[in-house]
Please model this.
Amino acid sequence: MKQHVIVFLPAHNEEQAIGEVIRKIPRDFHKDVKVSILVIDDGSTDRTVEVAKEAGADHIFSKEHNKGLGAAVRTGLQQSVALGADIGVMLDADNEYPAWQLPELLAPLLEGESDYVMGSRFKGTIDGMQLHRRLGNYFFTFLQSILLRKWIYDGQSGMRAFSRQAMEEAEIIHDYNYAQVLTLNLVRKGFRVTEIPITYQVRSTGQSYIKFKAYMTSVLPAIVKEMSRPVKRVPIDYHAHQIKPIDWSQLHTEKP
Model:
């Protein structure tokens, strides 16, 4: 059975990068996988929407005002389900993450080994990341690992894949950011998480959603709130997206 993968890109004023990101997303790497692209336009005031359409985006969902990255990712998950996605992939629109590694990100889901996959810069390459961002990542990822009693390498990754069940069950209780609370929520519900190494490149255009001071003062209360909430473990179909075994190493996943 063909698996419909929707890659959704939260975007706020990313006209300089989003076109290149969309063009790098592999579309035809497996006969049993269909790939569509959804852009969540978070109140952009530049040409983000026009550039995304020109580059080949299949769907655009626009918010009238900027609501924040957490809200954009929440909308991306909801819209992917509404559009009939079997698997959802969240990918930052800033060209920092390797869109061409989509097949590798999907492999654990399509092999029935995972329900939630994160692309890990710290298991791959992280050259050029600013020191304060690196230290903040280390701190929050370590905290996340302690709370989950499971080692996580890159808790803030902007490249993630979700089974349909994970998309339906995911709760993001924070509009400013999603990274910490989403993983805490899904793992506590019993979803299997996997990290695969990815290649990181420093953003060369635009401005980040995330501001260091706001991140430090906003994310900790959200983590406390998430961990204080009772959650129920979910009965999971562990092979919902498994397709015929394939030698993934033979697929073209090099940077175009």
